[in-house]
Description:
The protein has two domains: about 1-215, Hypothetical protein, domain 2 (Endonuclease III, domain 1); about 225-345, Alpha-Beta Complex (Nucleoside Triphosphate Pyrophosphohydrolase), CATH 3.90.79.10. The chain is elongated and about 80 Å long. Strands 1, 4, 5, 6 and 7 form a five-stranded mixed beta sheet that branches. Strands 2-3 form a two-stranded antiparallel ribbon. It has 15 helices and seven strands. By secondary structure, the chain is of the alpha+beta class. Keywords: 4Fe-4S, DNA damage, DNA repair, Glycosidase, Hydrolase, Iron, Iron-sulfur, Metal-binding. Pfam families: HHH (PF00633), HhH-GPD (PF00730), NUDIX_4 (PF14815).
Amino acid sequence: MKFSNLLIKWYLQNKRELPWRNTTNPYPIWLSEIMLQQTRVAQGTPYFLSFTTAFPTVFDLAEASEEQVLKLWQGLGYYSRARNLHKTAQYVASDLGGIFPDKYIDLLKLKGIGEYTAAAIASFSYNEAVPVVDGNVFRVLSRYFDIETDITLASAKKEFAALAFELMPKDNPAIFNQAIMEFGALQCVPKSPNCGICVFNESCAALQKNKVDQLPLKSKKLKVRNRYFNYLVFADEVENTIIQKRTGKGIWHNLYEFPLIETEKEEDWDYVNKHVQDEYCKGNTNASIYEYSAKSILHKLSHQHLHIKFWNVQVPETLKNGIDIETLRSFPFPIVIHNFIEKELQSF
């Protein structure tokens, strides 16, 4: 078909040289696909290289501790991906002898692997004719064929997968899948694509109808929740501090943080001081408290905006379970706390 031939020709001339390409080994392909969910290639590539250096095989990843995995993942976000990655590595190593399933339907059974990732591994590693459908694919196909289906609907994925399957050369599904994703990433980009140099500028329905900026159709708007975090950075007479592990459900599960006061709105020094004296000092000692910065740090997640303040809390006695700055750096933190540590806590 003209579409597939043009697309693959474009890909062979324009594809990026990426470290997980030119292999059919499912381990690095799986790693790359998990890392690139919600992550740009430029951001994900250094993490991929770090992981494959530290854990060259699925057995190495399986034998690592969760804290090692989370520490290497630090900054990529969506940390449930890293925890699922680790659990799946342990399952593949121990239960499957280190061999990944070679069928799409069986790959779906692995923790953290959804339809998109299973399709990518099945086609890239085993040449199974199953289409990938991600944001790039939605965008390319909706524009080229002028499809006005709302891509937030559950039925949309089936519709686009059926179309992609129809277009896919069944003898080489891997190159088609790679090509359509790369085309969406480099050429048919979300905003202001350069249609003048596009190989499809004579046949793209959206371009002919001046609808490129209207597609794909996406009606749902994510409701963003605001949260207010006050982190207490304790420092004692020997310059030790204390941290805690986030074990509850929600963001940053199993990462570390400083003691936290979460409030309904941004609070001032009086509020934080009273909380520290009442909850931590309990009248036994006085703590000296000051803000590192009067302005909150705004940390945006996909569905939450975190307004974060760090408070220095100086106490005269030695902290129980206190750790020094070098030990502190060895723990996995959310990137906003990691950056604070590197910038502000060279020494207390």
